[in-house]
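The pair is listed for reference:
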Amino acid sequence: MVESLEIKKMHEKPPYGIIAILFIGAFVAILNNTLLNIALPVIMKEFSITPSAVQWLTTGYMLVNGIMIPASAFFIQKFTNRRIFITAMVLFSLGTFIAIIAPTFSLLVVARMIQASGSALMMPLLMNVMLTAFPIEKRGAALGMFGLVMFTAPAIGPTLSGWVVEHYSWRTLFEIVLPISLLTLILAIFKLKNITPNRDVRINFFSLVLSTIGFGGLLYGFSSAGEKGWSSPIVYGMIALGTISLVWFILRQLRMKEPLLDFRIYKYPMFALASVISMVIAVAMFSGMILTPLYVQNVRGISPLDAGLLMLPGAVLMGIMSPITGRLFDKYGPRALVYTGLTISVFTTYLLSQLQMDTSYYYLMGVYTFRMFGLSMVMMPVMTNGMNSLPMISNPHGTAMNNTLQQVSGAIGSALLLTLMTKRLDASAVAQAKDLAASGVDVSTMTEEIGRLAMLDGVNHAFFISTIITAIALILSLFIKRVMPPTSPTIGEVKEQSEK
């Protein structure tokens, strides 16, 4: 009763100062992730590594997120939001410092993973605070502002990265992030207070082991496929081990009174549907952010700065649209927004699968921007509608589940699409070399041109697969209904209100 009165009081006057500190932490974590997208080709050249190897800077980051986030429900319930956030910022700052001084690519990947161990807790923590601090009728607008932070960082990231990489070392990217993270840590130590309710829950270490092996094995297996090949025992062995461990983990959680990650929330149909659509969109969004810079820089030879500027309008528009779609969600519900956004996303992703060697820079910018506009109408409405179907006691598990599946699906999807791109690239290069040799052309003088054409073919192929994946989400969006949270704190029937 006391707790409900405190929550009611909080709903009347949300703790904006505390939320602002959490927003800064989330912002710097997302900014750090997107900063490297433009820098990947430069890092490839410096360390003389392949595209499949360099993706570990992104995939490794998401790998640790996929391992850590399932446990975030436990941490959020067990420990205060102040302790969690300060610990997360310490880890994130440490990883950033190691990245600045890393002499080898392997140590750079380790630094990224240390960063991820801190950032993994920030997003679930922030979302759980938002769900606690705002009443149901204001969640769309509140989470829309949350989306503004999520999408403003990607807006700044590529452009800032392009400018830095063109004029300075890629290490400067981390040198920019470190002071911001340290300042956020200091603010948290002196200003952050506890607002989320805590319970005396215990962690089941065997469940944590199964979760780590399950999600980690799947991510490692799929991420290694591009470099080692699908026939490698390590690849299919890790995928098999991950699958078995994940199934065991899920069955174990369903039998436990205090699960590490409560899969019983999937008894709520709209949460289950929201999770599936969110996973598909994560694949589309992460892959687009990786494939586009590869085409722009490696195929077209456009400078890192111009590559960043090309992606800037789309990310800015996505950030602007997030609070707008949040308010539209509160007023009209999710269906029209999600269906329209996914229709745009499917169409624009298909256009990106038809790129040519002479595709106009501004045409590409327009298509990419329109694609991000479509995705902006999908992400937060889908997530908010799914979370609204859960009782408050299940919010930590809902946020943990959403973030886990988005990270895992984004990592697996990106790795899979990059693998398909690499395979298509290799096959295309061989085919072109044979055709040129058959026509009497000296292939040794055409190596660079063959490589660019093969890369173009690989990027187009990957974007076409992404089109099919996004179309699946479009079909699923037809089944979305607006929901209101159940009054009972236990799993039960959800009152569904059909969209007008």
The first helix runs from residue 2 to 12. Residues 488-500 have pLDDT under 50 and may be disordered. The radius of gyration is 22 Å.
